[in-house]
Structures are given as C-alpha cells and as structure tokens.
Automatic annotation (TrEMBL):
Keywords: Hydrolase. GO terms for molecular function: hydrolase activity. PANTHER family: UPF0173 METAL-DEPENDENT HYDROLASE MJ1163, UPF0173 METAL-DEPENDENT HYDROLASE MJ1163-RELATED. Residues 7-198 form the Metallo-beta-lactamase domain. This is UPF0173 metal-dependent hydrolase GCM10009039_16020. NCBIfam families: PRK00685.1 (NF001911). HAMAP family: UPF0173. Signal peptide: none annotated. Belongs to the UPF0173 family. SUPFAM superfamilies: Metallo-hydrolase/oxidoreductase.
Amino acid sequence: MEFTWHGHSTWSLDVDGTSLLIDPFFDNPKTTLDPEELDPDYVLITHGHADHIADVDRFRGAHFVATPEIVGYLTDEYGIEDATGMNLGGTFQAENAFVTMVRADHSNGLDTGYGTSGGMPAGYVVSDTKPTQVADSESQTFYHAGDTSLHTEMKDVIGPFLEPDAAAVPIGDHFTMGPMQAAIAVDWLDVDYAFPMHYDTFPPIEQDPQDFAKEVKGTGSDTEVVVLDGDESFDLGDQLDY
C-alpha cells in the first residue's frame, strides 16, 4: 500500500492497483499538483466542509463514498452520479481495498445557506484485507482520522479491532486536535507510523509538526512520526516487518 499527502487532509492511496482519493482540496500551500493528473477509482469524503470537497467536480468519473447526506449534496450540487452512501461502522469493498467508515468528532455543515447538516462526520480505515476479529499480521491498513477531536473510540475500537499500521491525524488545533491531543490519539492507536495533516493551511491552524513529534515521544509511544512534504509518498509495504 502506498499513500501520498497532497496537503491539508487530501491523500491519494494505491491499494494493490486500486486508487483512492480522500477529501480532494488542492487549493492549499503544500501541493503543486494539478488534480487533473490524478484519476482515482474511488473518492472518499469525510465531511462536507469546503476545504474537504472543493475539488470533487474534477473527479466525476470516480465512485464516491460518503454519508447518505453528503452523497445527496454532491449529487445535487456537483453532478456526482456514481456513489455509495454509508454510515459509521460500515465497510465498503472498493475492489482491492476495504473501506471502513469510523467516528470523527467535528461539525458537518454544508454550504447551502441554510445550515444543512451532512450527517455525522467520519474518518476512514482503509485496508487490503477485510476487517475480522481474527488478526491478520500481513495486512496493510491506513487510518485517516478526518477532522476530529480526541475520542476514546480510537483506543477502544479503531486501534484494537481495526488495527491500523499507519495513521494520518490532524494537528492544526482550533478546528481539530492540536499536537498534544493528536499525540495521545497516536499512542492509543498503537500504530507503527503517524503522519500529521490539517495544518499550515490557514493562519488559525499554523503548527510546527516537530512539536507533534515531541508530544508523541512524550507519551512513551514508539510510533515513528513521519512528516511528509506536500505530494510526497510513503510505501507502507516497504516499511512493515512481517
């Protein structure tokens, strides 16, 4: 499994030849990529805020996955025709990838002028094997936490049962967790690798990612913090020691 950070909360993933894109928003200072260069099979949306869906119209040929409320909004406002509406706890098979929608604690208003809700915000756990109660030591699993605060489901459900190897967590503070709470999340998740995201896009969320790395170390966790440059990739399969 290989994944690439395009700044903010935007990630592209390759899972055994199946390509996925999460929260397309390319008007951010960390990326120079023309989104037309990407051709994802699937687009996953965590919630309906503009800095997570701004470029969905560039990917109308993909299959979208989101809450039913978000799917309806994208259909009406962006002309998205191919989509699956799902909800927290569900798992969707996207060819070679298994996508489980998990809890995120955040707001989820849609830009309709009426304060319409997009339902529950979400995170996604993406794996190359179907989640089961039987641990699969050779699976590769990536957790995108979405826009969220710290919540105990990371410790009680996502970490022990969905078993992510790597986690992308917001560190920007103000709208989401800051470095300290994000570090606690990483410790609870017990992942091998942690990637900061959702920072340095706007003035309220300016952060030094090395502060996050120090906070992770301060928890006593042995998780490796990897600070990616915009449009930089990480190959999980090359790093895991089975």
